[in-house]
Amino acid sequence: MTCTYCRQTNSEEDHRCGRCGRRLLVGGVAAMEGTAWPKAGANSTVDPYLTLSRGSLALDETPAPKAHLPPPTHPRLTRPRQGSLFPENEKVIQFPGEEPAPPQRRTQPRKPRRKVAPDLETQPYLDFFPPVPNAPRTLDTTVEAVIYCDAPVATPQHRAIAWALDLSLVLVAMAVFLGAFAVCGGELAFTASNSPYFAAAFLLIAGFYTILWPLAGGETAGARWAGLRVVNFDGQKPSRSERFLRSLGAVLSFAAAGLGVLWALADEEGLTWHDHMTKTFPTIRNHP
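RE: above sequence
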């Protein structure tokens, strides 16, 4: 088959020219070696294929039967695999493949249990002091004691010394008041008309002295000089409110003709009325 463009002779089975690469005409057209395609101008409407359909060069216009080809099917894509690199041999030992692990079930995390410390008896308790009996403390008269601590109650002599010292300070303050009253032009004549005023002045000074120490949170000057301190029935230092109530109770004990103070002489533990009312009592300062 001869190319109509470059006159290259090609095989009958070729569809394109081996030199110029143009398409070769099929059906006897290529047999004409001296035939050339007509040149068409720029405005020419001559179809070059019509020149080959007339006269002796007419082609067989009988349509070739169309073969019924099956519809194209898309090949199934498969993943590339590496082929065997070694020839098959019976001596090769086949190992089983790795099986996928079964899915694990998700379980809720358990709460950590509290570890109980074991009872180690390596260090025994040391009995430095004898155990305290569970029964309430009793007195010599088989009466249950109201004081739970071991602090001793101040004796009536210690109480009397402390009261005398406090009373002396109140009298000194009263004397200072009378001196200031006299300096200011007052008359110190004690008559029936002015005696209540002097008595009221004495009670005011004594009351101020009594309330002053609870507000300060400590014992009176007489109790300190006598070596006494006030504690509650548990042996602890009383609060400011307990000291204030104790001062009011002492006023009631003296106001009842001194019976509340004299009650300490008959009490099993030597406590006065205001000691029982406030659950406090005076004890020796140096006692542990």
